[in-house]
């Protein structure tokens, strides 16, 4: 005899609902996006949202984790896979030009754009920490190349990392303002001209 399944099955696809929430936060930012907006795009009621994801902030934190493992993963891969800091940042900026202007999803970077006008201290801190972690990862790669002689001694790793981060963040906003992939790739090329020559 078949065992009767306990509990009421979910009437929605959780992964699909999470993807729809990601798109809404990406388009509108954290502050402007309301629970009513989320339930509308996710196709569920507020009780189902709270039961499946917790409150709005908890849902957003899950969105950030998912974004980092999917749409935003190109940045982590570039820094992890390239043999030098210069190659990693070159790849990072060129892939950003492509990803930030991809019409398959909202333009720019969710972690950057979602912070606009955010009054939640907890969410602002989470987003700032993520951005600062990215800067620290770039600075670490640059510092390793200085130590190995691949970049000149005396290169300021912190400043060069912040320059790279500023270009990355600026490219996100410019993509939202209508810049094309070709225009942003040109920005990436120009930014790399600020790097010092190889140390060897």
UniProtKB/TrEMBL annotation:
Q: Which residues bind DNA?
A: 34-53
What keywords sit in the KW lines? DNA-binding, Transcription, Transcription regulation
**DNA-binding is among the record's keywords:** yes
Q: Where is the HTH tetR-type domain?
A: 11-71
Q: Which Pfam families match?
A: TetR_N
The record's listing under InterPro entries reads: DNA-bd_HTH_TetR-type_CS, Homeodomain-like_sf, HTH_TetR, Tet_transcr_reg_TetR-rel_C_sf
Record keywords: Cytoplasm included? no
| PANTHER family reported in the protein's UniProt record | HTH-TYPE TRANSCRIPTIONAL REGULATOR YJDC, TRANSCRIPTIONAL REGULATORY PROTEIN
Name of protein: TetR family transcriptional regulator
